[in-house]
Amino acid sequence: MIKVGIIGATGYTGIELLRLLHFHPQARVTRITSTSQQGEEISRVHPQFKKIYNLQLDELDLEKLAEETDVIFSALPHGLALEKVPELTRMEKKVIDLSSDFRLKNPKDYPFWYGFEHPCPDYLEQSVYGLPEIYRENIKEAALIANPGCYPTSILLGLKPLIQENLIDSSTVICDSKSGVSGAGRGAKLPFHFPECTENFKAYRVGSHQHTPEIEQELRYLSGDPNLILTFTPHLVPMVRGILSTIYAVIKNGVEKEGISEAYRKAYEKEAFIRLVEEPDLPETKFVYGTNFCDIGFRVDERTGRVIVVTAIDNLVKGAAGQAVQNMNILFGWPEETGLLHPVVYP
Amino acid sequence: MIKVGIIGATGYTGIELLRLLHFHPQARVTRITSTSQQGEEISRVHPQFKKIYNLQLDELDLEKLAEETDVIFSALPHGLALEKVPELTRMEKKVIDLSSDFRLKNPKDYPFWYGFEHPCPDYLEQSVYGLPEIYRENIKEAALIANPGCYPTSILLGLKPLIQENLIDSSTVICDSKSGVSGAGRGAKLPFHFPECTENFKAYRVGSHQHTPEIEQELRYLSGDPNLILTFTPHLVPMVRGILSTIYAVIKNGVEKEGISEAYRKAYEKEAFIRLVEEPDLPETKFVYGTNFCDIGFRVDERTGRVIVVTAIDNLVKGAAGQAVQNMNILFGWPEETGLLHPVVYP
Amino acid sequence: MIKVGIIGATGYTGIELLRLLHFHPQARVTRITSTSQQGEEISRVHPQFKKIYNLQLDELDLEKLAEETDVIFSALPHGLALEKVPELTRMEKKVIDLSSDFRLKNPKDYPFWYGFEHPCPDYLEQSVYGLPEIYRENIKEAALIANPGCYPTSILLGLKPLIQENLIDSSTVICDSKSGVSGAGRGAKLPFHFPECTENFKAYRVGSHQHTPEIEQELRYLSGDPNLILTFTPHLVPMVRGILSTIYAVIKNGVEKEGISEAYRKAYEKEAFIRLVEEPDLPETKFVYGTNFCDIGFRVDERTGRVIVVTAIDNLVKGAAGQAVQNMNILFGWPEETGLLHPVVYP
Amino acid sequence: MIKVGIIGATGYTGIELLRLLHFHPQARVTRITSTSQQGEEISRVHPQFKKIYNLQLDELDLEKLAEETDVIFSALPHGLALEKVPELTRMEKKVIDLSSDFRLKNPKDYPFWYGFEHPCPDYLEQSVYGLPEIYRENIKEAALIANPGCYPTSILLGLKPLIQENLIDSSTVICDSKSGVSGAGRGAKLPFHFPECTENFKAYRVGSHQHTPEIEQELRYLSGDPNLILTFTPHLVPMVRGILSTIYAVIKNGVEKEGISEAYRKAYEKEAFIRLVEEPDLPETKFVYGTNFCDIGFRVDERTGRVIVVTAIDNLVKGAAGQAVQNMNILFGWPEETGLLHPVVYP
């Protein structure tokens, strides 16, 4: 039984780690930290944990944390993680960081997309992008895992087989994604105030969302095309959890439906958390709610020569905490699904 | 004060006509019909109308209806409207039909997209497509107005200036639309059962939705390109009302943001129901809830050379009953906004 | 056409006044004020008002406001209204105040239930409690109208006939009320953050809600019993608008169902905004959404000798802004339903 | 590892049993039946189970089922269970029945509250009411367990300490309960159609709900008063899961807050699934979502001499499938929380 620490345990990603790790047969959360609520019982701050967790929120003491745990999840927001994570790595502690602070390989992307200069760009080189379906081998040896963003996970898993098998014109990719409100975090703000948010649907940060370079970086890696760019539009859905991405691309001459099916089967038949959805069905967010699954379906629009891929994940699980636990499983050499195969709470 | 009849008054489109016409200073609903609930008071079937309407649901007697009203709205479902509407037209009664039975000019589109042979294709020629922002002049003289579909309205209004001013490559158009559940009508079915539908988001009829030929028909008319085709993907949002369409197209060489702004201003500055949304804002469905407005905003994604247009309407108002009343106003020579300028019920 | 001013026009009550007054044939809003957003166009702060209102938010200058308007609605929060309203009254301006600052006749209730000493208790005497179904005659002459709270409106209208006709044991009254989230106002706070608030139901301030003395004050007036007390429990429903109150009382010996029906008919048959709901139907909040109606139904539980009354209102309309407009209509001698008879936006 | 059969596995209670039993370390579901969808894979009917369950829906063959399983859950609707369950009992198979067909001890209650004569009243005698917090000892030996209704569970657990310790006047009990929509089952009907059901709140079956006699039967047992009656009002909340019951009673002379606290502690301190909620907190349905917990809090309203108890459960878990698994644990001598201690999916 390994000992797990969580930095920033009271936000939505932090409590989702607590939820998922409760099922894990080989890991136990022993230390949790919070800046704003240190000293409190986690079950006072989050009453849903009563009779589940007896754990107090500690102040963040990196040295103590490193000493007393075997692996650390950082659920700090971006811009804060980079102040804490490098020190843990220097102490040779394995860290799975759920922020975006170590995902981008090109330091110039930080000022452009995030608005700050990265203070420790050397860590960008050694971090491993924690998408197991692409980087499984590298994750095994990683000291610092940069856990992927929610939108990028939903898009990269949908495009990987098409890009790798060279089935689409990569200059035509458009990703239209829709996310539940938990993706915005636990901070109460007017756009997420219930009366404003329910019975409303909108696009936001059109053409300028900070997940764009992350998606492009990985598609470039997969395609070998260093100039690949795409259009990405996020939307806000009046629901709590779930991302559905609808991805459009022109298929290459001669490519047919069966070839696309074959590419998906080949890429994913051994994956524990990818479920291919066959016609006439299509992915729906409710079928992956609370789970680490990514459901993928597609249609070929023969009239226009496009493929339309639809993927569904739970943004807090496969899009954050669940994927982080999957990465921990890889890091420790356990089967990837260890403690992660939960049925959906349905309906 | 003219007398108005509504055929099929108990469905969502029918009761929305009742709601909107209640505000109209020149028109009064005097006859309403229902097949399933004839003889009932409308306020028994729909208690929200108590103290608002004292009207009984009649059986559908076309002759009597024609005699006793000045204009008729048909809110029958598609496939049923075509059995009733032609007879009213033969009796020289003005009809605004809210089904899709008279929208498509090419009779062959009906078996392909709707699954039935059209029994009276000559009526397809004489009907006028009731989108005032395109066909205002024709509507004035129309005997039979085919009121547009909800998705087509949201897409055509977004694309019209770009197509007419030749600013985009029309072979690259992709429309990703999201609709509230009222678009599915009042029939209780499993996918719309509250526990299945709330906290869920999904795509449906990907590449095969029956509104596709209607959108293409009108874009061909606007562009002059008889072969224009596009990709259209509808989605279901867990909310009652509203359609948000996100429309993608490659812009032509040399076209810039200001030129696009100018095209929208030029096309719509005199329109009563189009509201252009300026940066940094974008349309949201909640801002048009219950109203006949269509809000339109756009972004130029300079990195990829695409324009992304976002439009928002209320599917039951500008997407159905409100547009029908706007058409009635045109037909009778009244200002288009007569009885239609309502503030949103917000929040 | 009279000129109307609104103090505090950007909160939910303020914008609801703007919405409703837009329909009014005799009144026009000419001045609106806001402390936090003065100088802004109302349609910038609330985009739903584009093409509906061209009005700028002014700073609050009481003298100017009094000079340039015929009647003033104050939509300031409680504790703030009492700093501004008395001065307007001193300038002999008619004010309809939507806060609770002038509702309670006993100054001692303020420190006990609201936590502050009332600075101008003489105004408590001259203010009129603005529930038309009880105080219509007094409202006609009032200088200062204290518009009722949302919960009290839903409860008092349900109990008035039973209390007045002496049909129930007034020591047994229990009011279990459920409110939509808009009742909490527009301030973003964690309990109303969409992910926390949706798919949740809870009671709050059990036995200690500040509307309790207001309900008791008016029931004492109606019953003549100066010691009447009751139990009131508010709950939060994951919806935007609506209050449903379920009210329990032991019926007096010999009282039967028909006698109760008769009491309701007698009390309300001439009321424009009360709708009695007959068996087997019961009030539902959706049937009054966005309207000034109060729907009332009841059941006699013969096994236990209790009557159970169910009432439904829209908390922002009959529970706030709509009732305020109804009071304005009374004040100016217009029919009470002037500008207020709107059909529900349904579904 | 025991083998479990589920009759009626596709409804909401059936799939909740499948979800919960997936976590169970000692039990495995080996046979599931469905009348309407026999022959189908469960993961075709319910795609959320893909990669979780490989199980086919069988036709209902009671003999085969009895032979091949160690315990059987019946999730048939009431009126149907009584046609199948007795035969299983005759074959000496342990059955946990989730319908109401064997809950009421007095056969006369069936025609009065359910509208049918009970065909096998002798089974009413031998069945054990499966509320572990009351009947734990009897459950251990039961051949047929009548799993409690959702509303009764939420009310009985709230009242048990007060009744047993004689702290309240049992003639004054009023239960005002609010339930999520999943309680209505999976059948699509107009009142549960998303556009009708969302943004709506209502009471139903006021004074006549069929759970009333079940609540009274058990309160009579607890109190020893064979004439105890109460008022019970159910309401429908626009959410999927959860019941919150607000329970009112007059406290007996001399009873104080501390005495009530003590009664709850004494009754529940050893219970695995009861969580007492201390001031200033109160139960909320979201804190028990998806779990077998029952959260209980109370307030003494000293002004009126009443106690107000608030309880929260998940209607599909502690109100149905979870309690059934708890009963199975008791039946097999395992710790009650075996396989049932799950953290909430939050938010």
Describe the strand arrangement of the main beta sheet of chain A, using strand numbers: 3-2-1-4-5-7-6
Question: Strand portion of chain A, in percent?
Answer: 15-25%
**Could you say what the CATH architecture of the largest domain in chain A is?**
2-Layer Sandwich
> How many domain units of chain A?
2
Structural class of chain A: alpha/beta
Share of helix of chain A, binned: 25-40%
Looking at the chains present, what oligomeric state does this protein adopt?
Answer: homotetramer
- Given this structure, which CATH class of the largest domain in chain A is correct? Alpha Beta
Distance between the termini of chain A: 34 Å
Q: Kindly state the number of beta strands of chain A.
A: 14
